[in-house]
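Input (structure):
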């Protein structure tokens, strides 16, 4: 039977995001590809430690257990390894019981060009070059930043947090602000366009699909008050009134919403993140991602739009 991946919410994940490859990468840097291959072969049955994206990916895959008939999500491994050197990664995936069976091994090359073939709504990697190349090609991608990995087995909930401009929506409004770094000019523009929805940003597809799954969970809870939801999504944006109205207009036009939405007006986002405790947080600005409380919140930089263009 043909596997219809078009109907799935697909995340492509690099082994560098899923597992801790610090030691392996150092061998590659110090001794080159041949010794790297021999190192991986010698350590074939040594299970890799959990990487920054591991807690998120594990819980994301658990969505299929909530909706076993449809199994709406899929994770595909994207790797610069060859199948031989990637064998240790696949054995580690099996060890942890992750339902990942599809993979793209692009020996020595960036795998991002194959994202459309797998219908990927997101590509996660710790390789900055790969992520920037993917975004430049208009593919949805995020750079996983270093942080401590915390994976509480007793915490079955999946919490995902998104910035709005340059992540869920395009960077039109950010461009207005960056023109003169004028908050009043930004609010005036947003007030004038409050009834005009934004164009989708790089992670709009992923956000929309997660929001629809939340709606399915709402219906499940209506049928069974004892049903315990597994998915919470939040929007955490530097916007505040009156520019908040365009966020609402945009989401309403898409027929989606978030569990929780925070309009912080320039407040430090970690004040909310430290309470929401997302398993992953997406933002297009590195300045919002460099002060994780205790370094335990998985931060992902989406290098999209004007906030990531070098000044001329």
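Output (sequence):
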């Amino acid at each position: 039977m043909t596997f219809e991946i078009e109907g799935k919410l697909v995340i492509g994940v690099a082994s560098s995001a899923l597992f801790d490859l610090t030691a392996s990468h150092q061998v590659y840097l110090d001794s080159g590809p041949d010794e790297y291959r021999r190192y991986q072969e010698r350590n074939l049955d040594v299970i890799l430690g959990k990487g920054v994206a591991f807690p998120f990916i594990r819980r994301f895959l658990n969505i299929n257990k909530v909706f076993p008939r449809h199994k709406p999500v899929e994770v595909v491994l994207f790797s610069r390894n060859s199948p031989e050197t990637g064998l240790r990664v696949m054995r580690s995936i099996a060890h942890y019981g992750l339902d990942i069976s599809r993979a793209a091994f692009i020996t020595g090359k960036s795998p991002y060009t194959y994202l459309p073939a797998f219908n990927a709504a997101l590509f996660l990697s710790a390789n900055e070059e790969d992520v920037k190349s993917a975004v430049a090609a208009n593919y949805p991608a995020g750079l996983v930043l270093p942080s401590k990995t915390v994976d509480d087995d007793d915490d079955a909930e999946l919490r995902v947090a998104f910035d709005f401009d340059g992540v869920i929506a395009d960077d039109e409004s950010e461009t207005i602000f960056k023109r003169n770094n004028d908050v009043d000019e930004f609010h005036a523009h947003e007030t004038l366009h409050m009834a005009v929805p934004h164009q989708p940003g790089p992670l709009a597809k992923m956000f929309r699909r997660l929001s629809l799954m939340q709606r399915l969970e709402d219906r499940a809870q209506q049928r069974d008050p004892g049903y315990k939801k597994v998915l919470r999504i939040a929007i955490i944006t530097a916007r505040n009134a009156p520019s908040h109205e365009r966020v609402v207009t945009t989401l309403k036009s898409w027929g989606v919403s978030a569990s929780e939405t925070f309009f912080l007006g320039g407040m430090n986002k970690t004040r909310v993140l430290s309470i929401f405790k997302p398993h992953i947080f997406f933002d297009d600005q590195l300045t919002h991602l460099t002060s994780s409380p205790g370094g335990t919140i998985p931060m992902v930089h989406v290098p999209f739009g004007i906030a990531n263009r070098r000044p001329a």
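Notes: Residues 22-42 form the longest helix (21 residues). The longest strand covers residues 73-79.
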